[in-house]
Sequence to fold (394 residues):
Amino acid sequence: MTVDLPAPTTRGDLIASWQRAMDAGFRADRHAPRHLAPAEVTDRRRDNALGEGARRLQQVFSETTDDSDLMMGVFDADGVLLWRGGTSRWLDAADNLELVEGSRWDEASTATTAVSLVMTDHRPTRVAGAEHFNHALHTLYCAAAPIHDPRTGSMAGIVGLAGPVEALQPSSTAFAASMAALGEHEIAAAHSRSLIELRRAAHARLAGIRGPALLVDRDGWVADSRGCTAPDAVATPTEGAHQFVPGIGTCVAIPVGSGWLLRRVGPANPIIAELDLRGEPSLSVVGGGEEWRTVLTRRHAQILLLLAEASESGLTSARLSRLIFGDTGHVVTVRAEMSRLRRAVGALLASRPYRLAPGVTLRIAKDGSSPADRPLDYQALLDTPLGGKHRRPA
Fold:
């Protein structure tokens, strides 16, 4: 593919981004990022996983940076600038470029920027001068890095650095990656504090329950337990609905403070999970006379089959990446998929490494056959396109 860039480059990510911009009808002489209403910016700040951690990033940036021409911005996963910091002189220059809180810097709004490339590739990068699609940005260099939510593996936001191109810092990409790592630490620390607070607030309620029980936050992350070996997380509870938790049994969710108490309402064993591949994949769990069922994506069905074949030894993120995609370059994608799968099936899975939870038996039904115990055959599922490139290594 040949694209008329303002400067020669062999970077495939830049060429692809420029091509998309031109296909979308962007004009290089028109810089007009979209802006969100102040109320929506406030809502996005409140709902972002980084939350108060953004203030810590701003503090570290202001205390450790002596470059008067450097600005830091924290964007959400949609490329909206939510927080920024820098000297008043440079912030005035940023205002002229509409690099302000509430402006959108995704590819659909500003074409090729470091932020838009991170949104596409989920890795640290830098764009300098004429590598930007818009002429108005040719005076800048920008470095950016993704902030991933350690709980889910999904991208929670992006740290971006910007300065005049004549003052380009070779270490800017590493600096952005370091700030992103700090952001991930802040997300994990804030979540840990919230679980501690929930544990303190609901300790008496948990202690008053007879039999095994879990105390979990609104998203199903376990804050405390009683009478059982607790998993890291369970499927997101719903008030009054029954859900199956291996090692405890069928549980009912009771709202308490900022979370839920899950107490047993049915026997815990046996635990038989049936993966039905006859049509749309689904998973049923039977135990103590209770049955629970959920529909799965075909990717999640594939992962369950791989974990079942791995048995108690389990699989690491890197090994799952190789089994699904043929290489180890998709670890972040695998972690995000595993987080979504664990949200769907709760404590049926264990981690470090990923595996079926102790005591869980997985049976498979496909092609009209009965789900009797037998060696798992997932080749047909692996050979069927699941969206995106994948293959089993030889």
